[in-house]
Write a structure and sequence with these properties.
It is a single chain. This protein is of the alpha/beta class and about 130 residues long. The chain folds into 2 domains: about 55 residues, 2,3-Dihydroxybiphenyl 1,2-Dioxygenase, domain 1; about 70 residues, Signal recognition particle alu RNA binding heterodimer, srp9/1 (2-Layer Sandwich). Helices cover about 15% and strands about 35% of the residues. The protein is built from 2 helices and 8 strands; from the N terminus they run βαββββαβββ. The strands form 2 sheets. The chain has a 4-stranded mixed β-sheet, with helices on one face. Strands 5-8-7-6 form a 4-stranded mixed β-sheet. It is globular, with a radius of gyration of 15 Å.
Length: about 130
Protein backbone atom coordinates (compact mmCIF):
# COMPACT_ATOMS: atom_id res chain seq x y z
CA UNK A 1 0.00 0.00 0.00
CA UNK A 2 1.18 3.51 -0.78
CA UNK A 3 0.29 4.61 2.75
CA UNK A 4 2.96 2.23 4.07
CA UNK A 5 5.67 3.61 1.79
CA UNK A 6 8.22 6.28 2.60
CA UNK A 7 7.43 9.79 1.37
CA UNK A 8 9.91 11.41 -1.01
CA UNK A 9 9.88 15.06 -2.09
CA UNK A 10 10.79 16.45 -5.51
CA UNK A 11 12.19 19.89 -6.29
CA UNK A 12 13.41 21.13 -9.70
CA UNK A 13 16.72 22.88 -10.34
CA UNK A 14 18.64 24.22 -13.34
CA UNK A 15 21.89 24.58 -11.36
CA UNK A 16 22.53 21.55 -9.19
CA UNK A 17 25.82 22.93 -7.81
CA UNK A 18 24.04 26.02 -6.42
CA UNK A 19 21.18 23.85 -5.20
CA UNK A 20 23.56 21.51 -3.39
CA UNK A 21 25.31 24.39 -1.62
CA UNK A 22 21.96 25.87 -0.59
CA UNK A 23 20.31 22.68 0.65
CA UNK A 24 23.44 21.38 2.41
CA UNK A 25 25.23 24.50 3.63
CA UNK A 26 22.34 26.90 4.23
CA UNK A 27 19.51 24.55 5.23
CA UNK A 28 21.77 21.86 6.73
CA UNK A 29 20.22 18.89 4.92
CA UNK A 30 22.23 15.68 4.63
CA UNK A 31 23.73 14.83 1.23
CA UNK A 32 22.69 11.39 -0.04
CA UNK A 33 23.72 11.16 -3.69
CA UNK A 34 24.29 12.99 -6.96
CA UNK A 35 23.77 11.46 -10.40
CA UNK A 36 23.00 12.80 -13.90
CA UNK A 37 19.27 12.99 -13.09
CA UNK A 38 19.04 14.31 -9.53
CA UNK A 39 20.79 15.49 -6.43
CA UNK A 40 19.36 13.76 -3.35
CA UNK A 41 19.37 15.21 0.16
CA UNK A 42 17.58 14.07 3.30
CA UNK A 43 15.69 15.84 6.06
CA UNK A 44 14.83 13.78 9.15
CA UNK A 45 14.85 10.60 7.06
CA UNK A 46 12.75 11.98 4.21
CA UNK A 47 14.62 12.05 0.92
CA UNK A 48 14.25 15.03 -1.38
CA UNK A 49 15.20 14.51 -5.03
CA UNK A 50 16.35 17.75 -6.57
CA UNK A 51 15.68 17.00 -10.23
CA UNK A 52 18.15 18.38 -12.75
CA UNK A 53 16.30 20.18 -15.54
CA UNK A 54 17.39 22.37 -18.43
CA UNK A 55 14.63 24.88 -17.69
CA UNK A 56 11.43 25.29 -15.69
CA UNK A 57 9.22 28.02 -14.29
CA UNK A 58 9.05 28.02 -10.48
CA UNK A 59 5.57 27.60 -9.00
CA UNK A 60 4.25 30.75 -7.30
CA UNK A 61 3.23 28.75 -4.20
CA UNK A 62 5.02 26.76 -1.52
CA UNK A 63 6.32 23.44 -2.83
CA UNK A 64 7.99 22.18 0.37
CA UNK A 65 8.08 23.20 4.01
CA UNK A 66 9.44 22.22 7.39
CA UNK A 67 7.79 22.31 10.79
CA UNK A 68 10.15 23.82 13.34
CA UNK A 69 10.03 24.19 17.12
CA UNK A 70 11.16 27.84 17.26
CA UNK A 71 10.42 29.81 14.10
CA UNK A 72 11.96 33.03 15.44
CA UNK A 73 15.31 31.29 15.97
CA UNK A 74 15.14 29.55 12.59
CA UNK A 75 14.43 32.85 10.82
CA UNK A 76 17.40 34.48 12.60
CA UNK A 77 19.69 31.55 11.73
CA UNK A 78 18.65 31.44 8.06
CA UNK A 79 18.77 35.24 7.73
CA UNK A 80 22.34 35.20 9.05
CA UNK A 81 23.15 32.76 6.21
CA UNK A 82 21.75 35.16 3.62
CA UNK A 83 18.19 33.85 3.26
CA UNK A 84 15.70 36.61 2.47
CA UNK A 85 12.16 35.98 3.66
CA UNK A 86 9.34 36.73 1.26
CA UNK A 87 6.61 39.30 1.83
CA UNK A 88 3.05 38.61 0.75
CA UNK A 89 0.85 41.70 0.88
CA UNK A 90 -1.80 41.94 2.24
CA UNK A 91 -0.71 39.39 4.91
CA UNK A 92 0.39 41.06 8.12
CA UNK A 93 3.89 39.71 8.67
CA UNK A 94 6.32 40.56 11.45
CA UNK A 95 9.48 42.53 10.76
CA UNK A 96 11.19 39.14 10.36
CA UNK A 97 8.64 38.05 7.74
CA UNK A 98 6.59 35.70 9.92
CA UNK A 99 2.82 35.52 9.39
CA UNK A 100 0.46 34.22 12.08
CA UNK A 101 -2.45 32.29 10.59
CA UNK A 102 -5.97 32.28 12.07
CA UNK A 103 -5.20 28.86 13.62
CA UNK A 104 -2.16 30.31 15.41
CA UNK A 105 0.39 28.61 13.16
CA UNK A 106 3.30 30.89 12.30
CA UNK A 107 4.80 30.68 8.82
CA UNK A 108 7.71 32.28 6.96
CA UNK A 109 8.49 31.79 3.27
CA UNK A 110 11.73 31.97 1.33
CA UNK A 111 13.07 30.85 -2.04
CA UNK A 112 15.88 28.53 -3.03
CA UNK A 113 18.41 29.65 -5.72
CA UNK A 114 16.02 28.48 -8.48
CA UNK A 115 13.09 30.50 -7.12
CA UNK A 116 11.21 27.54 -5.61
CA UNK A 117 9.11 28.76 -2.68
CA UNK A 118 9.87 26.95 0.59
CA UNK A 119 8.55 27.55 4.09
CA UNK A 120 9.18 27.01 7.75
CA UNK A 121 6.29 26.90 10.19
CA UNK A 122 5.64 26.56 13.89
CA UNK A 123 2.29 25.01 14.77
CA UNK A 124 0.16 25.22 17.88
CA UNK A 125 -0.13 21.80 19.56
CA UNK A 126 -3.39 20.07 18.76
CA UNK A 127 -4.28 22.47 15.93
CA UNK A 128 -4.35 21.31 12.33
CA UNK A 129 -1.75 22.65 9.93
CA UNK A 130 -2.47 25.91 8.15
Amino acid sequence: MVADGEVMGFIPTVDSAKARRFYEDVLGLRFVSDDPFALVVASQGTEIRIAKLHEFTPAPYTILGWRVKDIEQEVRTLSAKGVVFKRYPPLEQSDAGIWTSPSGARIAWFADPDGNVLSISQHVDGVASA
